[in-house]
Amino acid sequence: MKLSICTDVFGKIPFTEMLDKVVAYGLDAIEMTAGGWGGCNFIPSAEELINDDAKREAFLAEITKRGLAISALNCSGNPLIDTPMGKMHSKTMRDTMVLAGKMGVDTVVTMSGLPAGAPGDKTPNWFVSTISWPEYEGFNYMAEGVKYQWKVAGEWWKETCRIAKEAGVKKIAIEEFPGALVHNVRTFNQLCEAVGEDSDVLGLNLDPSHLMIQGAEPIEAAWALGEKIFYVHGKDARIEKHNANIDGILENLPVECSAQRNWNYVAVGCGRDLQWWKEFFSVCHMNGYDGYVSLEMEDLTMSVGAGLQTSIDALKATISR
Question: Residue 285 CA to chain centroid, in angstroms?
Answer without folding.
Answer: 20
